[in-house]
């Protein structure tokens, strides 16, 4: 884990203080560093064939490429009451994994005052959507003179704990006004009749509202329908208070007619893009801002291979991007998609396994992102090719499944054993600076804890360090299995045949040079035993992996002159590459190193917090002809799928 040695009391005090300062203290649902692409949701025109949802994707927020040959990705006839939909707005839900889309249920061929309904859609993959129609006029009494319902959008109202849908409505004799109502739990209907959300002080009509929150302030961008129509903004700290501060300035940077303003944040920056539909010209204008008040035109930086109308842009993760591409194909001009980090989210200390039982690869990491390394559960991920990883959920929860420790779930390892013709999986883990073991019949659990710590004290003669970072290695020459562990020392003991106890009298300390810190990992190749370990502190940008070679799983270890396995790549912004494991492709002399690093690109600016906001990456591990290890250059590209 790479922490400086400190007492348990101090650790608890620091953890308590950290939690007091940061009430969450837990990983975010979606880590901002994992938002690496964008989805543009739009329609294209005023014929019924064009009034449908279309998708485009971008890697940088500036260059967009349509999907599905610019054809609809959802059939309007199946989801609407009019046969057409317009003004798509998409939102990522508060849980990070549910998506909400709302649409104007309308085809312009029937007239601009022809619609009374909106369409609500819900998805967990951006590909498959469940839809409902909400007709305001027929659902809520008193709307007999309702003329139109336009441009619905959704925002999560944290104060109410609900999803607010807001939209403009016009009744006969009155102006368009922006109303709101909360969606029901299933996002299939409105809980109650619409209420007024916003009316300009001048009482003029307003449509096409778009709300974004920044630093606790909600910014409502809207089109005012005055003698001089245009885009304006109003702000509030309470969505339903009715207390809005209006900015009298027009925000559009053009004299052309505009509508459909939409704002999104550029990934990994403090910049926002405000875009709006210049509908008489058939194109968008893009502007950039940091304060949501002053805007600079960036049209020359923008490219699209389609002509959108009123839509929205959603930052998405690589796995979400891949799901879209799997469904509708990758545009030829779309840039390369990186495969590192291998796992989305904050994870560290990865253990990799190829399971003979399933023919799949698995990664077992520390669940990172908790303040002060305060995680308490372990997850697993599976893959057929070492590139595309499926979350398998929590496989061991200290608070629920372990009686002897409930904190600091760190640095697991696992071994597959065939015992009496049956595969079993022995999962060794750190908890409260002790090492335990849990057992399962499957690589994804459920795992049953043995009921006590396997290692709870330092080896004889060792005065400093922690009992953490287990590694298990089975010697192919003898069939014996060994448990390695330690921080500031490399401990080892032979495991009994039951794999959940240590053979008495076999515990020893293997001598390593001063570069040894933690994270022992042992492999066997061509008659040699390779010992790998991490140097420095996991909070240090210089955290790295070194190695030595031995003729025995118990040492002594010979250290090559150039013994760095992997270290940071400053030119690529990659730092603190350490605590690794290694996997060999079955029946091939093909090896891969799985390791953690500071989260990219944000980690290097986090200070000590970078040490518990780490991510897992994979690169190829190669050997020289003389058996020494070629130094691995860490990459963003990662590896190609392994067959």
Automatic annotation (TrEMBL):
SUPFAM superfamilies: Arabinanase/levansucrase/invertase (SSF75005)
Source superkingdom: Bacteria
GO biological process: xylan catabolic process
Database matches in Gene3D superfamilies: Glycosyl hydrolase domain, family 43
Membrane-traversing stretches: none
Pfam families with a match to the protein in the record: Glyco_hydro_43
Signal peptide stretch: 1-20
Molecular function in Gene Ontology: hydrolase activity, hydrolyzing O-glycosyl compounds
Keyword check for Hydrolase: yes
Keywords: Carbohydrate metabolism, Glycosidase, Hydrolase, Polysaccharide degradation, Signal, Xylan degradation
InterPro entries: Glyco_hydro_43 (IPR006710), Glyco_hydro_beta-prop_sf (IPR023296), Glycosyl_Hydrlase_43_Enz (IPR052176)
Entry's family note: Belongs to the glycosyl hydrolase 43 family.
Protein name per its UniProtKB record: Glycoside hydrolase
């Amino acid at each position: 884990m790479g922490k400086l040695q400190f007492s348990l009391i101090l650790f608890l005090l620091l953890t308590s203080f950290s939690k007091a300062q940061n009430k969450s203290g837990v990983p975010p649902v979606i880590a901002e560093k994992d938002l690496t692409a964008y989805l543009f949701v739009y329609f294209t025109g005023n014929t019924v064939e064009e009034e449908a949802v279309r998708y485009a994707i971008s890697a940088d927020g500036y260059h967009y490429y349509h999907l599905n040959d610019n054809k609809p990705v959802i059939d309007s006839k199946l989801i609407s009451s009019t046969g057409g939909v317009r003004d798509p707005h998409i939102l990522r839900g508060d849980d990070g994994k549910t998506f909400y889309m709302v649409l104007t249920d309308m085809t312009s061929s029937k007239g601009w005052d022809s619609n009374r309904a909106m369409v609500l859609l819900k998805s967990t993959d951006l590909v498959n959507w469940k839809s409902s129609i909400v007709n305001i006029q027929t659902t809520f009494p008193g709307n007999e003179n309702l003329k139109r319902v336009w441009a619905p959008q959704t925002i999560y109202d944290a104060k109410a704990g609900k999803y607010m849908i807001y939209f403009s409505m016009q009744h006969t004799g009155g102006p368009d006004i922006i109303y709101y109502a909360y969606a029901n739990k299933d996002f299939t209907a409105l809980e109650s009749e619409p209420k007024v959300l916003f009316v300009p002080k001048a009482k003029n009509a307003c449509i096409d509202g778009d709300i974004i929150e920044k630093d606790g302030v909600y910014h409502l961008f809207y089109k005012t329908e005055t003698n001089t129509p245009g885009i304006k903004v109003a702000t509030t700290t309470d969505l339903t208070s009715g207390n809005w501060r209006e900015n009298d300035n027009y925000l559009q940077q053009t004299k052309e007619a505009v509508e459909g303003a939409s704002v999104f944040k550029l990934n990994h920056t403090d910049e926002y893009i405000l875009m709006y539909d210049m509908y008489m010209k058939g194109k968008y204008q893009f502007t950039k801002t940091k304060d949501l008040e002053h805007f600079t035109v960036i049209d020359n930086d923008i490219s699209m291979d389609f002509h959108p109308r009123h839509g929205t842009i959603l930052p998405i993760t690589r796995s979400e991007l891949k799901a879209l591409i799997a469904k509708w194909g990758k545009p030829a001009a779309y840039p390369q998609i990186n495969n590192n980090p291998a796992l989305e989210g904050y994870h560290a200390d990865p253990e990799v396994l190829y399971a003979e039982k399933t023919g799949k690869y698995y990664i077992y990491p520390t669940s990172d992102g908790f303040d002060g390394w305060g995680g308490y559960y372990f997850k697993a991920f599976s893959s057929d090719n070492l590139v595309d990883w499926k979350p398998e959920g929590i496989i061991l929860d200290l608070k629920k499944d372990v009686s002897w420790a409930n904190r600091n779930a760190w640095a697991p390892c696992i071994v597959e054993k065939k015992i009496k013709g049956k595969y079993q999986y022995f999962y060794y883990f750190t908890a409260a600076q002790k090492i335990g073991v849990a057992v399962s019949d499957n690589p994804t659990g459920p795992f049953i804890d043995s009921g006590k710590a396997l290692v709870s004290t330092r080896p004889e003669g060792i005065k400093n360090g922690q009992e953490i970072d287990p590694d298990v290695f089975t010697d192919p020459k003898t069939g014996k299995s060994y448990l390695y562990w330690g921080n500031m020392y490399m401990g080892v003991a032979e495991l009994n045949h039951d794999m959940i106890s240590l053979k008495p009298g076999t515990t020893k300390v293997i001598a390593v040079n001063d570069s040894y810190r933690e994270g022992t990992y042992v492999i066997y190749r061509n008659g040699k035993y390779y010992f790998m370990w991490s140097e420095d502190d996991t909070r240090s940008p210089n955290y790295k992996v070194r190695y030595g070679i031995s003729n025995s799983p118990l040492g002594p270890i010979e250290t090559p002159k150039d013994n760095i396995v992997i270290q940071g790549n400053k030119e690529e912004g990659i730092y603190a590459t350490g605590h690794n494991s290694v996997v060999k492709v079955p029946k091939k002399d093909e090896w891969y190193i799985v390791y953690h690093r500071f989260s990219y690109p944000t980690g290097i600016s986090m200070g000590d917090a970078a040490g518990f906001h780490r991510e897992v990456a994979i690169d190829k591990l190669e050997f020289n002809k003389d058996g020494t290890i070629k130094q691995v250059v860490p990459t963003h590209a990662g590896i190609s799928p392994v067959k």
